[in-house]
Amino acid sequence: MTEVMIDTGNYIAAKAAVMCKPDVVAAYPITPQTTLVEGIAKYLATGEYKGEYICVESEHSAMAACIGASATGVRTFTGTSSHGLLLMHEMLHWAALARLPVIMCNINRVVGPGWNIWADENDSISQRDTGWIQFYCSSNQEIFDTIIQSFKLGEHEKISLPVMISYNAFILSHTSMPVFVPNQKDVDAFLPNRAPKWKLDPDNPITFGNIILPAEYEKVRLDMQKSHEYAKKLILEISKEWKQRFGRYHGDLLEFYKCDGADYILLSMGAIGAESKAAIDNLRKEGLKFGLARVRCFRPFPKEEILKLSKKADLIVIDRNISPGMEGALFTEVKASLYDNTDAKVCGFIAGLGGKDVPFGDIEKMCKKVINGKARHIEWFGLEGV
Amino acid sequence: MAIKDLPIEECYIPGSAACPGCPATMALRIVYKALGKNTVKIVPACCTAVIESLHPYTSFDIPTMNIAFEAAAAGASGVEAGFRMQGKTDITVVAWAGDGGTYDIGIQALSGALERNTNFIYICYNNEIYSNTGIQRSGATPYGAWTTTTVSGKTEFRKEMGEIIQAHHIPYAAQACIAYPEDLFKKLQKAKIIHGPRYIEIMAPCPPGWRFPMEKTVEMGTMAVETGAWALYEVENDKVTFNGRSKLIMEGKVERKPIEDWIKYQGRFRHLFKPKKDIKRIKAIEDHIDQMWERYRKCYL
């Protein structure tokens, strides 16, 4: 029996994680992730969570402990945010290169200084090259569904990679929404037990992670790349299976919204992705042919689909992050995907940094500026005369 | 117990990449003999990460997981929890780190794991330097010693890790030395059957790091204990017992030898003897060891 749970993104994430029955959770509190780990601690106290919860002394140790546990063959989960994610950076690479499917929520929060706890995606964007699969969610239901899907994805024998599920601070982490929660039996039927090919085992004494020469190391990197490529297919399959079993679908690598016959397609992520739908509705009411391709999966990046989109519409990208000295990271990735379409037109906006609200009205303004031909190649919304 | 009575089985496979005279490999052999094959080892960045050989080969006949420099104790916490959740509680989980990974970069994770009462053995093989990176000073480097980052000799005294560990009031902690393999073996055997966090530190004189001939490793270890620069002791539920030669020194039954007897054979202290004997700094080392033993007697006798 599916039940409806009305709760914040973090408590919904805790519920989803516990329903996946991780054997080990290791976490360190940081605003705005705290209620996620408190949620798991509460399930531990009530007995609904039967695994081990290691209250480590730092995020670096949280990821190290997840790596250690995962290496024994068990299922692991953690959550963090902003500075916590940055402190983990070394171990993010380690988990990915060790091919350990640690599943982690990251609540997108501004990086200091100055101290600021609101939404901004620079924390996870700056972990782009660690080898983690990266999802960005735009509703609490999507958080719930994506966590469970991520265990299946990351633990798949052809993937064996860690997965990061990111969602915006407060806008989702601390906002209550109704979420459909399937029963445990159905989740169990969807999610098989983890069965790794290799693990720490005294009956089969293997040394993991010792010195590797250049020629061998390059193969390790190639294999990781191949797994990311394969993940593109598997994400499609898993999203489809989820839809069949549970009747919900948030897209796969991308979520398309009113893209049919669109002259302009907006690309955005996370909470701005959700807000974009309202903007698209309003623009359509005015007869303006806009659609949305919400980027749900940032790594692997859906470059093939984006190239296809560019052949039927002009693209507009909104980034809630900035790579100083270049531009928004999504903007860069989108443009890199368009190499085979020399006629592609694309404009980029930086918006919502430091947690500044990006309501649908502002998104409409950005879109209209592009239609009017007044938008420059890249603009900071609200700061550069939009 | 004599050396001939130690188990014959070896989990340390010949053909490793260790330097000749390496104390870490001597210690590892004893560790494996004492803990047996049902052991899993977690190794951060340290000489052992080189000693273990190139992928896809290994020098160890027990499963070994490498982990980042500062993460040995945290990684071990995860390994221990992972095995426990599978009901594999008979596996001995060992973190095996150098003094850099213990005294300095790994101390936070170590303290955290001890405080959480993690059921594992943390072993620090202490060669008083960052040896794997090419002989830089660590928090365990003694006063006056040359390293590549203390070119005229270290100007600070080493930190007392044993006392830091004791402040965590764990069930078992011990200091040992590669020159006393029976003592080390007994301590490991004792640690193996205790539940909770256990810490063993092994004095490990390093030929290239300390600048002495490779055949003198054991002798350097013996002299570290006989001069009192290093003490053999164990702490069981806060009760401190000194062992062997260190017990005799503690009880005043033998005099500790002058520190000069130890340091004059080590090239890392050569600048204290040539071109002119640096009486002031040699005395500072001697006084520091006297103070250490005074403190030991006051607290533990």
Which descriptors apply to this entry?
heterodimer; A: 386 residues; alpha/beta; Rossmann fold; 7-stranded mixed sheet; 6-stranded mixed sheet; 13 helices; 41% helix; globular; B: 301 residues; 14% strand
Per CATH, the superfamily of chain B is: Thiamin diphosphate (ThDP)-binding fold, Pyr/PP domains
What is the element string of chain A, with H for helices and E for strands?
A: EHEHEHEHHEHEHEEHEHEEHEEHEHEHE
CATH top level class name of the largest domain in chain A = Alpha Beta
The fourth-level CATH homologous superfamily of the largest domain in chain A is Thiamin diphosphate (ThDP)-binding fold, Pyr/PP domains
**What is the overall pLDDT average of chain A?**
97
What's the CATH C level of chain B?
Answer: Alpha Beta
* Arrangement of strands in the largest sheet of chain B: 2-1-3-4-6-5-7-8
Mean pLDDT across all residues of chain B, rounded?
A: 97
Q: Which strands sit side by side, in order, in the main sheet of chain A?
A: 3-2-4-5-7-6-13
Instruction: Domain count of chain A, please report it.
Output: 2
What is the percentage of strand-forming residues of chain B?
5-15%
- The level of helicity of chain A is 40-55%
The SSE string of chain B, one letter per element, is: HEHEHEHHEHEHEHHEEHHH
Report the CATH architecture of the largest domain in chain A: 3-Layer(aba) Sandwich
Domains of chain B, number = 1
Instruction: Give the C-alpha Rg of chain B.
Output: 18 Å
Give the largest interface. A-B, 42 and 46 residues
Q: Helical proportion of chain B? A: 25-40%
| Tally of alpha and pi helices of chain A | 13
Percentage of β-strand residues of chain A: 15-25%
